[in-house]
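dude i think i finally got it to work??
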Amino acid sequence: MATDVPAARLGLLKFIAKQGGSISLRDLHTHSLVFYQAGHQEFSQLMEGLVADEYVTFDDDAKLFQLADKGQAFVDSQIS
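look at this
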């Protein structure tokens, strides 16, 4: 089954927000695999896109994704 990229992107952003705005790479990858069937390569592409769109930042030293203000605003706009 192919990953629904728009749904996965929004779902990952919502999940990061639900976790308080930051989450480890490992925990987010596991969530992605379980809920969106996005394996390693698909997960990498999803997250590279979210970083490029400035919705999240990635701290390589801590291996931590952080929801950016732009990402929170996008999540908020989808809730209404």
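The two ends are 29 Å apart (CA to CA).
im so relieved honestly
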